[in-house]
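<given_protein>
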Amino acid sequence: MNIKHAQYMLTVLQEGSITAAAKKLYISQPSLSQMIKLVENNLGTPLFNRSADPIALTYAGEKYIEAARQILTINNNLQKEIDEINHEDHGTIKLGIPVQRAMQVLPYILPKFKKRYPHVEIDVQEHGSATTEALVLEGNVDFACLTTYPKYDELEYILVENEELVLLTSRNSDIAKRIPSGTMIDIEEARDEIFVNIKTGHSVRTLQDRLFVQKDIQPKVLLETMSIEVAKRTAIACDAVMICPLNYIEMSPELLPKCTTYPIRGIEQNRNFYICHRKDRYLTKYMRDFITMLTTEDQPFISHEA
């Protein structure tokens, strides 16, 4: 299998069309179509169902992509091993991380890391936890920093910080007037409140939706946003509520006199902050040191208490 062909085929699948993939690859659409046709002719079978939108794989295409990912991983690992032999302090880390988590982590990690490895670049790709986990699973980033619970056998999950989700609201909201702050509640208590939601793709939203389905709640929604920072400040300002990681509230001490928080009954406690990577990915020395800095060195944002 040709490495370049494998990379191009994966790009077509990721972008959803040959036209979009050609733009990303900086090649003409006819050239990419011709390359795909060449691969299909050599294999004697079509790999893509071109009538689907977005473009879809045939069964043969699924097998090709599965093999392509394995080959690209082997090639990537070999290149990293060679690079480490030649330059132990040069390279790039592709890091998938949600924006809010990046705000929490990177200002503390990067100064120390860049002091130790000034010639290693950090390529940050900012997405919600669900998207970020998919990126590392597909091999498109080296590491993912995300809030989740371990669920893929292909990934190594390394605990960074325990996390608790709470219901956040202002001191003037209806629920705050009824229930003392810090009381554990059922989400039913907030059935009639107005919610600020994190958009789909964040692990907080996934868990929130699951709770609402369980309790048959159709919430009144004031705002949906990708930013927990925007959400928490809006919820407090508008006397609304949101489900929020407690540590993100503690990151903004100026908000504490204005808000109340409630632990939520029924939320699983094994959703924590992890850095994860594919088990079959070769980790260079600077990658291993990045993990060590994040997980074992003293950081003001890390609490390993359960």
The chain has a mean pLDDT of 88. The CA atoms of residues 173 and 239 lie 5 Å apart. The chain is about 45% helix and 20% strand. The longest helix spans residues 59-86.
